[in-house]
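thread: overnight batch results

M.L. [08:02]
morning all. the overnight job finished for the chain we discussed friday. pasting input first so we're all looking at the same thing
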Amino acid sequence: MTGLYFFQSSFLLKSVSSPVMRILCFMGFLALLNFSCQSPADSEKNQYEMRFLNIDSSLSDVNTYAIALIHKDSAFKKVKGFNTTHSNANEFTIFEGASLSKTLFAFLFWKMRKDYPDLQHSLSVQMCDGGYKKIDPLMLLKHSLKSADTCLINESPAAFQYSENNYILLQRLIEQISGKTLEELAQTYIFKPFGMTRSSFIWQSDFESNYVNGYYENNQLHRTIRKTTEAKSNGTLFTCLYDLKLFSKKLLQSEVLDSVLKHQVPVGQFKQLSWGNGMGIDRSTGHEVLWQWGCNWSYNHILIVDKENQLIFIALTNSMIGAKRLREICNYLFNKELELFNYINWY
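M.L. [08:03]
and the structure it wrote out:
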């Protein structure tokens, strides 16, 4: 095909007498040649980028809001920030991390398994009726067991049933095995090695200089940020867009991602969805796209990791209007309705 373009272009250049026209024709030929040499992945990446740049500027009415589209090798990084309630909102502005806590905790668990052999086998867990049962800890990360904060309610794996307490129960187990707190472990295995200096499972004094001050609806403050001091694996993460970019790129490049994709549980009647290790998997695009959506007292986010195209999309918002836009924006980027939103059924 390229040879045909070259033959046709050479013939065209010879037939054009004006030097200016020859230059213009040659430039057009180079553009056409560049287009013809693009791989399907590059083409897909360019479509993402083009749609991202076209996101409506009316997002400026959603209070503090930040979104980013990043390619794995940093060939491009696009970030948009909109706000009406925080004049200095940027990539380093602290948000409540909602269910992203579970994603980072699952990643932490997989990293710890190399250093703690006990985590590679079944663990003895207290049942809520007083007895003990050995279980595969991965079952807690898959939402296929039901538990309370301190004990397991049922001992047999069941169908997918979203359970926040599973993560708290596993947190207690790894804290007992390691002798360290969740915050200490996260700093050791994730935050410090990845350069995530503005992320923590507990509130840090350093966050005071730049954070969103609460949840807004109709431009009215409904709740101030919760500066929690007790780390919980299911929802106390504080983080920012910049740190999430660092984490997502590590996830995209890590063998942990393959573990996440291998250990899944089907999500009810949603045939294109499965779940495992702190992230959902959506196949409605024709390939596996990992996602995490969350609402932490109306701090909303969406994180999408597209392994096939090596792309990451992140959005954070602290307003009701922003939450409603997440579905709209993601479906626009992928140019189709993602099934994950039918499962979430959010707005």
